Amino acid sequence: MTDTNSMMSSKHADSPLVELAKAISVCGRRGITPVIVCGPKISLADDFFVELCRAVTSHSGRNVRLDLLPGHRLDGYRWAGWSRLLSMQRVKRLRKQLRNAGNASSETSTTIALSRQGVGGEPLVIGLAGPQDHLPTYAKLIELAI
């Protein structure tokens, strides 16, 4: 015989992406800027960021802006010399994918200083940083690692 309570709870368990979107939304409500830092063995596909923006917008009701700090690993592992060029190409590709996926309200910007979380109708800021980037006191580190 199957326990219906355990079946019910597993049916309603949120995916890790939804859980991340909820945590980011809570940060936004508290005026804290969440910053995602990937571990050295993780490289996230553009689809991850598209779905993350969609989930955060759905959960928070706010538009999203991704702030890419200098140490971000959007382009995966850093290659000397080609790093800046590859990074700029990847940012352009991500912007295009966000528009094509219907996330026209999502923005992406490269910056050297993380934005403070806005209020009201302003976009919810999500920082993408590397382990060596300095984070201000109004930021909350969200580390993705295996």
Q: How would you concisely characterize the structure shown here?
A:
This protein is of the alpha/beta class. The protein contains four helices and five strands.
* Gyration radius from CA atoms, angstroms: 16 Å
Percent of residues in β-strands: 15-25%
Count of alpha/pi helices: 4
Instruction: Pick out the low-confidence regions.
Output: 1-10, 77-82
Distance between the termini: 36 Å
- How does the helix and strand content classify structurally? alpha/beta
Number of strands: 5
Shape: globular
| Order of neighbouring strands in the sheet with most strands | 3-2-4-1-5
The H/E string reads HHEHEHEEE
Which sheet architecture does the biggest sheet show?
A: 5 strands, parallel
The mean pLDDT is: 77
Protein topology:
Blueprint: H1 4-11, H2 16-29, E1 33-38, H3 46-60, E2 64-68, H4 83-100, E3 107-110, E4 124-129, E5 139-144
Provide a descriptive summary of the structure in words.
The chain is an alpha/beta fold and about 150 residues long. It is about 40% helix and about 20% strand. The chain is built from 4 helices and 5 strands; from the N terminus they run H-H-E-H-E-H-E-E-E. It has helices at about 5-10, 15-30, 45-60, 85-100; strands at about 35-40, 65-70, 105-110, 125-130, 140-145. Strands 3-2-4-1-5 form a 5-stranded parallel sheet. Helix 2 (about 15-30) crosses helix 3 (about 45-60). The radius of gyration is 16 Å and the shape is globular. Residues about 1-10 and about 75-80 have low confidence and may be disordered.
Please tag this protein with its features:
146 residues, alpha/beta, 5-stranded parallel beta sheet, 4 helices, 5 strands, 38% helix
